[in-house]
From TrEMBL:
GO molecular function, one term: fatty acid synthase activity
Protein's UniProt name: MaoC domain protein dehydratase
Lineage of origin: Bacteria, Bacillati, Actinomycetota, Actinomycetes, Pseudonocardiales
Domain MaoC-like as annotated: residue spans: 17-117
Organism: Saccharothrix espanaensis (strain ATCC 51144 / DSM 44229 / JCM 9112 / NBRC 15066 / NRRL 15764)
Pfam family, any one: MaoC_dehydratas
Assigned protein family: Belongs to the enoyl-CoA hydratase/isomerase family.
Cellular component GO terms held in the UniProt record: fatty acid synthase complex
GO biological process, one term: fatty acid biosynthetic process
InterPro entries in alphabetical order: Fatty_acid_synthase (IPR003965), HotDog_dom_sf (IPR029069), MaoC-like_dom (IPR002539)
């Protein structure tokens, strides 16, 4: 677990590479109840103008948040986390899935002693989450 005394503005979090597969989409759909066909039917997804089956935005958001919880060493340290959904993550029907690269950086110490961490999630070099940030309380 990282201590507040060891954190400075500008610190970069260890990067995280995440693979999202079609099996992940099935598990997430079952857990969330989101069975929208854009997350499982290639025909439907392309029929509505998407590049193919896409990951659930909330799944991408949750997975990207792992960069902060792993860095903090305690999921309970995350006081607030929010994102805007920018681009979809197409998930191919293969064993590799989609590779999402996640980075994070401490950008501010807030008046209440928490830290603001900006998070960037990219697929094929393009950002998929906009304005992603977390507020973290470290001991």
């Amino acid at each position: 677990m990282i201590r507040a005394a060891d954190v400075s503005v500008g610190d970069e979090l260890p990067p995280l590479s995440l693979r999202i597969t079609r099996a992940d989409l099935v598990r997430y759909a079952g857990a969330s109840g989101d069975f929208n066909p854009i997350h499982w039917s290639e025909r439907f997804a392309t029929g509505v103008g998407l590049p193919g089956v896409i990951a659930h935005g909330m799944l991408t958001m949750g997975l990207a948040g792992r960069i902060v919880t792993e860095w903090a060493g305690d999921p309970g340290a995350v006081v607030e986390y929010g994102v805007r959904f920018g681009r979809p993550v197409p998930v191919p029907d293969d064993d590799e899935g989609a590779l999402v690269e996640v980075t994070g950086k401490v950008t501010k110490v807030l008046e209440d002693g928490t830290f603001k961490v900006n998070v960037t999630a990219s697929f094929e070099g393009k950002s998929v989450l906009g304005g992603a940030s977390a507020r973290v309380r470290l001991r």
